Recover the amino acids of this structure.
């Protein structure tokens, strides 16, 4: 398990076969808190923060549509606050957006439509290869395990 995400420039329909590898990230899940509780919202919001950290300079002075299968992340971005541990990565994401003049427009999508992001976060190389066959030239199974956000293959 880990955090995964990608971005597509422009406003066209979703086409995973046109996403360059450097427009995606998959990072291992960070260790749980001391009390060993698991809050999925902390990780969903963390993925949005990583996306902003990774591509902030590309997104400078623009509007970014954030598609998330997390209602909590969507509402947090709209309200700009959360009453949960996910508030920390939310605040970090909002600070980056403010510094780089990025307007975030969150949209909730059904989890069943979030196939590529889910596959990246699970290091599901078979699904990733089926959705993005053009990434296979980069030894996907090894690359995604050690991929650092924002660095081209």
């Amino acid at each position: 398990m880990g955090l995964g995400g990608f971005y597509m420039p422009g406003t066209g329909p979703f086409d995973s076969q046109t996403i360059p590898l450097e427009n995606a990230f998959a990072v291992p899940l960070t260790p749980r808190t001391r009390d060993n509780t698991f809050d999925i919202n902390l990780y969903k919001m963390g993925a949005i923060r990583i996306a902003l950290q990774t591509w902030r300079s590309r997104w400078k002075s623009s509007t970014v549509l954030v598609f998330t299968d997390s209602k909590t992340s969507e509402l947090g971005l709209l309200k700009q606050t959360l009453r949960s541990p996910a508030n920390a990565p939310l605040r970090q994401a909002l600070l980056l957006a403010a510094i780089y003049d990025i307007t975030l427009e969150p949209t909730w999508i059904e989890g069943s439509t979030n196939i590529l992001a889910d596959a990246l976060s699970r290091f599901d190389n078979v699904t990733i290869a089926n959705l993005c066959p053009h990434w296979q030239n980069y030894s996907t199974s090894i690359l995604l395990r050690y991929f650092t956000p924002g660095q081209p293959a």
Q: What stands out?
A: The beta strands are 2-6, 24-28, 63-68, 103-108. The chain has one domain: 2-8+17-146.
